[in-house]
Each structure stands twice: as structure tokens, then as C-alpha cells.
Amino acid sequence: MAIKKKHLFRKYFFVLIGSIIFAAGLEFFLIPNNILDGGVVGLSIIARHYLGLPIGVFIFLFNLPFLYLGYKQIGTGFAVASAFGIISLSIMTAVFHPYPPLVTDPFLACIFGGIILGIGVGLVIRLGGTLDGSEMFSIFATKSLPISVGEMVLAINVVIFVIAGFVFTWESALYSMISYFIAAKVMDVVIEGVNDSKSVMIITKEYRTIADEIQKQLGRGVTFFHGEGGYSGDELKIIFCVITRIEESTLKEIVTSIDDNAFLSIGNIAEVSGANFKKKNIH
Predict the structure, then answer these.
(1) 169 and 204 both lie in a single domain
(2) What domain range is 263 assigned to?
(3) How many C-alpha atoms does 234 have within 13 Å on its Cβ side?
């Protein structure tokens, strides 16, 4: 119980830190220079431009339906962590808003703003949450479409940046694209280069219990491989499955909560096809 509380404290502490960093990137670099981020945050910046309300209001309201999707598709832990991060982000944008921007040169703003945003969102995703509902929507939408989550997110953001060109200037739209690209690359570094899909191998005596929980909580099918200990010669079962990057934190929690001594190997996958992987329901 103490270990679980410590884990939860660490998780939400870093989600909070990630939200604060992300808010700082928005208010001190991007927003004062009319540079957008992608997804819900980008739409929120556009809405703020027309309606004049604090951006945090729009970030919270626009994310509400996607939080529900996250709860239905990924699980309670992910939805709660995301809600905590989004609320923290909304509050911190209001806290930082009265202060002047750190730079007024749009080129510097898009570079350093992108770096800071990538660090912030990378921390949150690494701990099993998100600050933007576009990825949750993309996971849901691609169940019936022959495209990946990453491709859907990119398509959504291209539309947002085109809108930004009409709302602000095309120069702002181009700077926004540069900032988004930098943020995406930095985010990948922060979360150790995670791809959309991960292969997982688990060696444990509690293979049946862990497999059942993976299927129950993540909705992912598993395969058992028969193995033999190289030193002991004991027969053992190896669990193999494929998950998405935002399910990685939940899977680790499942494994460690059942067997602290389990051997867990997670690797990046360049491509996944067949077995209706993208269409798999997550409970």
C-alpha cells in the first residue's frame, strides 16, 4: 500500500510539473507571438483570439468530451491523470498570463516554445496521461479507418495550422508548424523515443493473472510462448502482446502490482498490421 501511494504521488507530481512547464511555454513564448500549438490547445488559442476569455477556460471545456473518450477507451487511471494535468494546465496559464513574454522574436519563440512544450507534454505522457484530447480522439477514430494514430493527429494539426493562417497570418502558421515539429521531437526524447506501438514480453510465474488483467484493463490480446530457463532448465511461460504508447504506464502498473519480480521487456515497433490491432476496444 505504501509503495502504491508513493507511486501515485510521484505520478501526479510529475504530471503537475509537466503541466506547469507546458503552460510556461504557451504564455511566455507562443501565445504572445501568435504562434499556435496543435490539437485542442491550438483551437483554444484561436477561440481566445475571437472571444477574449482566458485560454484555460477553452482548454478545459474543449477537452471534456475527450476525457470521457479516454475513460471509455483507455481506463480510469489514464482519464484521471489527464484530467488532473488539463486542470493544472488551465490554472497555470491564468497564473502566468499577467507576466510579460520572455522573447518577442517569433523565430526564437517558436524554437524555445516548442522545446519547452515538448518537455512538458513528454513528462505527462511518460507518466500515463495527456494534456491534449486530439490523441484520444485519434485513437477512437482510427478504429474504423486504415490510418495510424500518428497520421490522424498530424491531419488534425494541419487543418488547425491552415485555420491559423486565416485567423492570424501565414507567417504565424508557418512558425506554428516549426514549433509543433520541434515539440514533437523533444517529446519523443523525453519519453525515450516511444512510438505509437510497443511490443511487450513478460516472464513471470503469475502469467495467467497478468494476462487476464491486460485483457481486462487494456483490451489487448496476449500470446503465450513456451520457454525454458537457460540456467535452471525450468519450463516457463512468456507473455507477448502489442500495446500503444499511452498504454505503457498502465501495463507496467498491472505487472508490478501482481509480480514485483516479473521480467518485463518493452520495445519499439515500426509497424503493426493484422489481427485488427487498431480496432481493438480498450476498457
Answers:
(1) no
(2) 197-279
(3) 7
